[in-house]
Amino acid sequence: MPKGTKISLKAARTNANMTQEDAANALSKYFGMKISRQRIMEYEKHPATVPPGFGHGFATIYRLPIDAINFAS
């Protein structure tokens, strides 16, 4: 990916070969609390609402630098 290029949360998940359910399970492990598939769906629809901690979680589970993911609407 060219430097400075940002991809959507959905594209990041798809590139990681994960379903929304996979992402929810991975984030549940990462945070030690239940994260629902519906929450993943909402964050993909409205990325500007993703809390900073979740941004780091998404970057970790998708194995991307956080600045490669577009969290703006």
UniProtKB/TrEMBL annotation:
GO function term, MF aspect, one: DNA binding
Domain of life: Bacteria
Protein name: Cro/Cl family transcriptional regulator
